[in-house]
Design a protein that fits this description.
Layout (H helix, E strand, L loop, with lengths): L1 H24 L3 H26 L3 H28 L11 H25 L7 H18 L3 H23 L4 H29 L8 H5 L1
């Protein structure tokens, strides 16, 4: 039974990686938010499974917090921002999608090779997921640096935190509850601040293209 659940956690990790690839290839903002929501739901399921196998009740609370924050609250806030700003498509990208996907494949190979020595030393339930988590973090970072719109960069930042959370859950069976609550609060506050930031960019430049901020340096 434990081996079956371990394989299930690995499968959920693979799903997270697929969703991360889908996010860097996605051009529609609403679909990007939906993919982030699916990432959150996958994290919730993975946390519950790890909690069942390891018999650690605090992981159930972590899963509940993750569900409320990453599946309900943050996607709802992002959808409201999208409606308020009337955003549908991100037409511009600093690097075209095929090139970004190719870079993403190289990033995944690098992440797995980097995590391999650590995974061999780990005795955790699903130590092989460390490479997946690192790849998700790096792919999210890649999305942040290749997108021109502020909304996409915010989602990339949130997806990066998802990768870190998955690593903490699968490799170390979660962080202390005080730390998790603090991180959850920080992420929520960060989303609210970034939302205000996006409204200010739109008001000043009538666009969410962050390259307009270069004008501030020139002035």
């Amino acid at each position: 039974m434990t081996a079956l659940l371990t394989q299930f956690v690995n499968s959920l990790g693979a799903l997270l990686l697929i969703l991360a690839f889908a996010m860097i290839a996605q051009r529609r903002i609403r679909s990007l938010v939906n993919l982030y929501t699916l990432q959150g739901a996958t994290l919730v399921l993975a946390t519950v499974v790890v909690g069942i196998v390891t018999n650690q009740p605090h992981l159930y609370l972590s899963a509940a917090i993750t569900f409320v924050l990453k599946v309900l609250l943050i996607p709802w806030l992002l959808h409201r921002v999208i409606v308020k700003l009337d955003i549908r498509w991100e037409l511009e990208s600093l690097i075209n999608i095929p090139t970004t996907m190719l870079i993403g494949i190289l990033v995944v190979i690098f992440a797995f090779n980097l995590a391999l020595p650590i995974s061999r030393l780990s005795n955790s339930l699903a130590s092989g997921t460390l490479g997946i988590a690192l790849a998700c973090v790096l792919l999210s970072f890649l999305m942040m640096i290749t997108r021109a719109k502020a909304v996409s960069q915010v989602i990339g930042f949130l997806s990066m935190e998802n990768g870190l959370f998955f690593a903490a859950t699968s490799a170390t069976y979660g962080m202390p509850m005080v730390v998790e609550l603090g991180i959850a609060l920080d992420v929520l506050i960060g989303v609210l601040i970034l939302g205000v930031f996006m409204f200010q960019i739109r008001e000043q430049f009538d666009s969410l293209d962050i390259r307009h901020l270069e004008k501030l340096k020139e002035d």
